[in-house]
Amino acid sequence: MNILVLHGPNLHLLGKRQPEIYGHQTLQDINMALDRQAAASPHPIMLKIFQSNHEGELVSIIGDHIDWADGILINPAAYTHTSVAIRDALATIAVPVIEIHLSNIYAREAFRHHSYISAVAVGVIGGFGTHSYTLSLDAMIQILQEHVHST
Ligand code: DQA
User: Fold this and answer.
1) Catalytic: 22?
2) Most C-beta atoms within 10 A of its C-beta, which of 9, 16, 80, 139?
3) Pocket test for ligand 1, best of 21, 105, 109, 124 (most atoms within 8 A of CB)
């Protein structure tokens, strides 16, 4: 199972960025937790993890993995609320996508309540801090397992 993990803008500053909202863990902590989780899985899982502050770069990374990715975990960060381009890229690649948020975007400002990404995702996991990522990886492994058994 090849799973692409994408972190959007400002997430490289986790740990320093508004810790009262996003917690104290760094992006490296999250990535290491995902790597450990993948290694501990009974299924063979390859993770490729990227962070970018640039919308076009995220679009390019998605497109570059069209023949590689079996599933995508993405925290689009602020692009959640603005990016038709990232949504179109995810719709094009046509593999299961899980949208992730550290915070509960529905408990925050009104402009965060709309996501351009959710409509092309199988599901959204948010509000659990760094656990949002590990819960999402679990969910993705289950989705891909079910897919393998149904084909
Ligand atoms: C976020 C929520 C977004 O509204 C915000 O712009 C982010 C992070 C989250 O993980 O909670 O940068 O995606």
Assistant:
1) yes
2) 80
3) 105
- pLDDT-derived band at 151 (thresholds 50, 70, 90) equals low
Q: What is the CATH number of domain 2-150?
A: 3.40.50.9100
- Give the chain's mean pLDDT: 96
Sorting pLDDT into bands at 50, 70 and 90, what band is 16? very high
Q: Which long-range contacts (CB under 8 A, 24 or more apart) does 50-57 make?
A: 50/4, 50/5, 50/6, 50/7, 51/6, 51/7, 51/8, 51/11, 51/12, 51/27, 52/6, 52/7, 52/8, 52/9, 53/8, 53/9, 53/10, 53/12, 54/9, 55/79, 55/83, 55/85, 55/86, 56/85
pTM exceeding 0.90: yes
What's the average model confidence in pLDDT over 39-51?
A: 96
For ligand 1, say whether the CB of 112 is within 6 Å of any of its atoms.
yes
